[in-house]
Amino acid sequence: MKENDMDAGLAVLADHRTPAEGAEFRELVSDWMETVLAHTAGDLFGPTVDPIRRASADLCSTLRIVSLRRGRRTVKEYDGVPEHYPTFWQAGLERPEEMSLVLTAKQADGSMGFPRLVTAAHRFADAPEWMTLTAEAQLAKSAVADGARLPEDFAAALRRHAERHPVQFGFVADDAEPPASALERSLGLFEEDTRPRSDHSIRGYSWVMVINPRVLEAAGGLSHLTGSGAFTAVETLSEGRVFLRATATLQEYTGAAVERVHTALEPVLPWGRPKFDPNLAYRRLIYST
């Protein structure tokens, strides 16, 4: 999210090793989009009917495919109507650079407005063995106000996804610019460089995270994280992955809570602390003194 949008936006991200087979890639992307929509569509768009497959009078739906072949990038976009989904999912067999579904609410005059939800899969030319699944929501009002449902929706979607798939790293945050984390942006790091280090480090720290078993061990183990006082929830998922939640609500994740998380996870974070930038003060990070 950009600075002027950050209070009305939220993101969830999950890193994966890219499946070797196109069918597995397509299934992973499909399950991600279905999971995100199952947890968020009702709160974002109201009582819509199966927005991933059916056009709605109140929603504008767009399917986007970005492919890279022989150094040339091709972008194709389709209206998100039922007859275009077979083409969209067929493209998934080629494991493209990007697949995304964009849902935007229509205003009374027919123009596009808020909320807006972009659910996507990204691959990277510099690190094709890795992929990142993301969902970003932009709202007309704060995503972290009292009673806001979206942070809980995104946290539940990430937890559900990580129970079923081998997530290497994941987070929910209102200060990130997916597919990068706030820490990567602040340190000037490229996610193509940090993502391949996921066996022993993480790309940032946030309110809600999922870490893999190797990172858990490098961080000091389950007992260290549980006893650190940094997390209100430390839950073991399938295959040793761990779901972490810093505070009961995203709104409470400030100041001392951010510092506790940073301290608990410092052994597995990229080296260095960013310098404070008043133009980026919304980022929930610990800065150099």
Shape: globular
- What is the total number of structural domains? 1
The low-confidence runs, each spanning 5 or more residues with pLDDT under 50, are 1-7
Helix % is 25-40%
The overall average pLDDT, rounded, is 89
Cα-based radius of gyration, to the nearest Å: 19 Å
Query: What summary fits the major beta sheet?
Result: 10 strands, antiparallel
By DSSP, the count of extended strands is 10
Question: How are the strands ordered across the major sheet?
Answer: 3-2-4-5-6-1-7-8-10-9
Distance between the termini: 25 Å
Strand coverage percent: 25-35%
Secondary-structure element pattern, one letter each = EHEEHEEEHEHHEHHEEH
Number of helices: 8
Given the helix and strand composition, which structural class is it?
Answer: alpha+beta
Short structural description:
This protein has helices at 22-45, 85-92, 150-164, 182-187, 191-194, 213-219, 222-227, 255-265; strands at residues 9-17, 59-69, 72-79, 98-106, 112-123, 130-138, 169-173, 208-211, 233-236, 242-245. By secondary structure, it is α+β, with helices and mostly antiparallel strands.
Can you characterise this structure?
Helices cover 28% and strands 26% of the residues. By secondary structure, the chain is α+β, with helices and mostly antiparallel strands. The protein has one domain (3-280). Strands 3-2-4-5-6-1-7-8-10-9 form a 10-stranded antiparallel sheet. A hairpin with a 2-residue loop joins strand 2 and strand 3.
